[in-house]
Amino acid sequence: MQLRRQEAQANCINSIMVDYVKPNSKNVAIKNAYKDLDLSFTAHPITGDVATKSDSDAVRRAVRNIVMTNYYERPFKPSLGGNIRGLLFELDTDRKLNRAKKRLTQAIEDFEPRVQNVRCVFQTKDNSLDVTVFYNIKNGLSNQELQFTVNRTR
């Protein structure tokens, strides 16, 4: 039983390191892999602890949380977030659209130190906004993309 558990944990660790395998080279464990808690708080199937997100998935979740957080939504940090839902119906001119892109890019760069070269693209359709965020992970994968749609709920 103990041997199976160790093998399963080794397979889990090997699947985490997939992002960093280079062709024609040795597999090297990276000490500075990024890990965050999974916010769904599901149990890990082997250990029973809270599951974690690793590497590019952890950074993707963090960037998405920053973008989707409105101002004054987090206690003691009123300026945290991209406030994208607050800007949903204010993007009627190109000037406001460019200002929102700069504000969102600055929020991601300020509150997520694991990313660099952030670029945002907006596309407006009726009462919805398609947001695409391009970024590079420091000491990791480049050319990452996060895409989602923001709709008014009323």
The residue ranges in which pLDDT falls below 50 over 5 or more consecutive positions are 3-22
Radius of gyration: 19 Å
Strand content: 15-25%
Reading side by side through the largest sheet, how are the strands ordered?
3-4-5
End-to-end Cα distance, whole Å, is 53 Å
CATH hierarchy: architecture of the domain at 57-151: Roll
Reported for the largest beta sheet, the result is: 3 strands, antiparallel
Average pLDDT confidence is 79
The H-and-E topology, N to C, reads as HEEHHEEE
Shape: globular
What structural category arises from helix and sheet content? alpha+beta
Assign a percent range to the helix content: 25-40%
What is the level 1 CATH name of the domain at 57-151?
Alpha Beta
CATH fold-level topology of the domain at 57-151: Nuclear Transport Factor 2, Chain: A
Total count of helical runs of at least 4 residues: 3
Number of strands: 5
Can you put this structure into words, describing what you see?
It is a single chain. With 154 residues, the chain is of the alpha+beta class. The protein has a domain at 57-151: Roll (Nuclear Transport Factor 2, Chain: A). The protein has 3 helices and 5 strands. The protein has helices at 2-16, 55-68, 94-111; strands at 35-37, 52-54, 115-125, 128-137, 144-151. The strands form 2 sheets. Strands 3-4-5 form a 3-stranded antiparallel sheet, covered by helices on one side. The chain has a two-stranded antiparallel sheet with strand order 1-2. Strand 3 and strand 4 form a beta hairpin. The model is unreliable at 3-22 (pLDDT under 50).
